[in-house]
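During the first year of the project, the team set up a workflow for recording each protein of interest as an amino acid sequence followed immediately by a discrete structure-token representation. This format lets reviewers and collaborators read both layers of information side by side without switching files. As required by the reporting guidelines, we include two representative entries from the current panel. The first entry is reproduced here exactly as it appears in our internal archive.
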Amino acid sequence: MPLLLVLAMTRWTSDYDDVLIAKVDSDLRIAEQYLGQIMAGTGAGVLAISESTSFLEATQQGARSVTSYLEDARTRLSLDFLYFLPRDQVIELSARWPVVANAEQGTLDTQIDILSASDLESLSPALEAQARIPLIPTEAAVPSDRTVEDRGMVVHSAAPVLIDGFEGVLVGGILLNRNLQFIDTINALVYQSQEDGTPNRQGTATLFLEDVRVSTNVRLFEDVRALGTRVSAAVRSAVLDDGRIWLDRAFVVNDWYISGYLPITDSFGGRVGMLYVGFLEAPFQAAKRSAYWVVLGAFAAVVALSAPLFLFLAKGIFSPLERMTKTMSRVEQGNLHARIGNVGSKDEIGQVATHLDELLDQVQERDRALRSWATELEERVERRTAELHEANKKLEDTFQQLVMSEKLASIGEITAGVAHEINNPVAVIQGNVDVIRESLGAQIEPIETELNLIDRQIVRIGGIVGKLLQFARPSEFGDFAESIDPTPLINDSLVLVSHQYSKQDINVSRDFQATTQVRIDPGELQQVVINLFINAVQAMGDQGDLTISTFDEVRDGKGGFCLTVADTGPGIPEEHLKSVFDPFLTTKSAEGTGLGLSISQTIIQKAGGLISVKNRPEGGAVFTVWLPDTQA
């Protein structure tokens, strides 16, 4: 029944909309016929004057008499212009206006034409002023830079004058711009006035010059007509561009209307405007909604009256089944105490209910036994799981220590081999350089600079080898630790790496608040700080913010110095956070060795401190170095 109701209402809505479209189509035909009558009446009036005896008499009395007669005839026929063209002037205008050309050939012709502002000015300054309409920006219209419409849409009629000695063409017409009598007459013909005699505002009519309303009874406000507003781009494209008649709903100025638009062509066959009629959509939509509610209300009333009767008849069957269903649902949810109970009947349904209750009793008893066994089993499993977890944790810790010990042992062997293999040829090079100096004596001056460069590079090689040995076997090197204030050393380190960030758009911020002194080798601490600075600068790329902060911090009841180095780079991948201090772990491809952070950790731990890293919520990574107070 609901599906049938929806189908019926859908079909009714479609038919209702078709009726509205048919109505606006009929209204548009009435408006078109009235415009045709205006054109026919104008042409007949001009032809009647050209053939009248009184006009013949006026031509015999001179040009002034003809002018006076035509002015009286224009007023009598309610024309906006009426003038006579002698044969010598007809040739010029016939090239511009087909109606004049046809009249010259002896045929009456009446068309819609568009006169420019200068043409209207030549006819009458009042007509030029009447045609001028300021354009009002309109929603959904085609964008335009024009601010005023100064052309005039006219009913243009021309009739031949065949008086001997006074041959020519009589031209007359009506300006449709601001012609409210014309548009209000169409509205009155199409839409009946209200009971009090006032115009029906629900129905509207409009004459468009292209897409501009030049005569309309559509209101912008209560007493302001929407002259100068423009039609929507969709309607313009369909009617003016494609030449189709629009019969559909459309947004007109400030509301939705069931609308009809008819293209208007001029004497040249071009589409120059539109004739529109339409009526407000809102009253019909309200009537449609009212009908919907009436149908839905009737359907609800039928359901409300019939449902209790069917429920009463079905109660004897469905009620016990519903109780069984609810009971089984409660059992599925874990309530094993649920029972169907007495259903009030001894038939097959009652027997099934009793049998189900007996089965539920058996299920509850078995569930009680199973729960007891499961509880005991879970306790045993939890104890064994806890023991296995503890043992596994110890095994993992031991394995990690073994892996690290093995790795460090391997690194020690590699480093010792590297030192041996490098130091021997370096010693040979150094010895030969000394031999060169002794051999050349005073003649060594030309190559003294090159030899000094070799000496410096040999010293550099020795320093690199020393750092590798220091990483692999830190206990074999002497302790040069001393009590220092780290802040000046951090400032000096920042100067040393300034070449790394001076060519990039990196802003360095400092916040030094720490006053604690620490005990550490200044060279080693500077190595750690420079490594952290370079890593942060390389992580940020071409631009970013490097923030360096120091402050005093107490950890585990012990005071100390804390340094944080934060960048705005991409941060460290989560899978690398736990292993970032492992030897040879690097994300710089061929540019890094992976020893920098590992050596830094060894240095800080040797000094009794801690170094850690984490990603910032706003992006980037932050490294934290904590060293104990020398006085603590």
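The second entry, processed by the same pipeline in the following quarter, appears below.
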Amino acid sequence: MQAGFVFAQEAQTELETIVLEAESDAILVQEGYVGKTDRIGTKTDTPLVKIPQSVSVVTQDQIEDQKPRTLNEALTYTAGANPNTFGFDTRYDAFYLRGFPAYYNGMFRDGLRQFNGPSAWLRTEPYGLEGVTILKGPASSLYGVSGPGGIVNMVTKRPKDETFREVEVGIGQDNRYQAGIDLSGPANEEGSVLYRFTALGRKSDTELKGYPDDKLYLAPAVTWKPDEDTKFTVLTEYSKATTGGTAFFYQPTYGEITDIYGGDPDWNDFDQTQGRIGYEFEHRLNDVVTLRQNLRYSAVDADLEYSGLYGATPTRYWGYYEEDMKNFAVDNMAQFEFDTGSISHTAVAGVDYNWSDYAAYSAVSYTTLSDLEVENPPFSGSQESNMVGVYIHDQMEWDNLTFFTSARYDWVKTDAVDSSYVGTEQRDHGFSGRIGLSYRTEMGLIPYASYSTSFSPNVGFVYDDPSTSDSRVADPTIGKQKEIGVKYEVPGANAVLSAALFDIDQQDGVVFDTSSGINKQVQRDLSSRGVELEANASFDNGLSLIASYTYMRMEIEKGAAGTEGNELSGTPNHIASLWGHYLVETGPLQGLGLGAGLRYVGDSYGDDNNSFENDSRVFVDAVLSYDFGYHDPDLQGLTLQVNAKNLFDTQKPICSAGSCYWDEGRTIYGSLRYRF
């Protein structure tokens, strides 16, 4: 959010405040660091404090203040989220929710599932988002395929009713140069057609030799509103990115990592091209019925050059991996608003369809790089999935009491072909549901309780015995959660406090096993029990705060020999964070912005045998900004900002399933933004 003041030339007194905001508030309604209303928990526009599950929001203002480079970075101050498991690795947005991996079955974009292949993942550009909503716990009763830990829904920047123009340039260490543009407003005099065009270009090295971080991102969007009851929005994206092929370091022995980077600078490009096109249609038939349809097609082409070192004496190998991933998703729903006596209902009924298809090709050479450069990589597997789900949801309100009930049934057909061209067909089906209750007291406290389940077919192959090459199509993951909590809207302030106690059991979860010497996917039964505390606030005096704490124990209920009863590797018991930002709005320092954050990640085990531990760590982030418009009306909209992440350069090894990574060191980036 950009705030500036206009001064009279003679009296030098404040006349008015001009506010230019990037968020559209079309789907996710937000104010400062506080999310207000969204469709994430009910598929209807519902105040987040009423939803009987824990919901966190990364708002537009938080994104602008913290300047995350990836979705992982955007989640670092969110309760229940752990994006720290794989250290520095910008290739993927790989994060955990309540201890469960959510990068395959918990990624959503604008309410539709975002499918990821084994390596062809849709990458997220934070500059193209106006917010992120995180629904903790099973959400299959409305969204179908999703994991026990929850879902992360990325909200794309949408066209705005008023004119908004922004140009931003950035520069930083490691030869980082970036430029972005964001334009929106009415496209005709009547205001019935709105547009938005968001674009970003970046050329950058990183702290790893031969590991770039280059990107071109283009995202046009158009909204047509012929009348107050109808809205049609088209959302598109084209993105081309190049990162490093590997973030691994040489590991001479199990659980030990060196500072020798494993990548070969001459064979280390991970090129990815992705695109998506879709629409959101909404039409209100009358005071009772509203129809909606959300549709999207997306595709990812990934070409991965990678290399590594192995053995007691470092010996190099090279690999090549190519994967094409295609997705189609459509969600058709009808919303009904009606009363039965003194009870008011907001109900939803719908049917959705998801299709995904990927094919992969790979090769590895332990002799020379030229072996890969002259051969086409052999086929390594493909998979096609068709999913259909039907669902209903009813949100009943009586005075200050709100009762939620949701039910869904899914049918899934999966056709897979392994590397030897042997095909298999698998059919899965399952029921998922949720019941929840919340009550708003006169003092603003909202206690709640809920029970929810999840059903999630898995993309890819798993191994019952990782020491062999025998693989099979993964079974669906089933989750069940019991949650109680309380939310508190502080009277007279833009602040929300929340606490949640959760208990999740998962059957056939997908995790990585390295007992065979390489990463292989296996299925395990897990349980997660813990508590989350979170606070978000933006006050009238320019101060904004985020605080979170998570205590959790992730236990292996059924796993490899010797691991049952152990804690899952890479899942710390304690994670805490605190972020504050203050914008000076009066006095000689007005326009100055100061922010700082503290992130604590507790110790954890480095493998499922719990044979060694990862040390705890503390990261410090900071931001310094200056809004020139506070002192010079001619410079309204011009803001200079410097962000530092991991200010004190904390770097420790972090191991998961026996594979180890390094934390990223200190990074400092500056940006100059002009809004007009």
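For the second entry, the following points were noted during internal review. The first helix runs from residue 60 to 66. DSSP finds four helices and 41 strands in the chain. Both points are flagged for discussion at the upcoming steering committee meeting.
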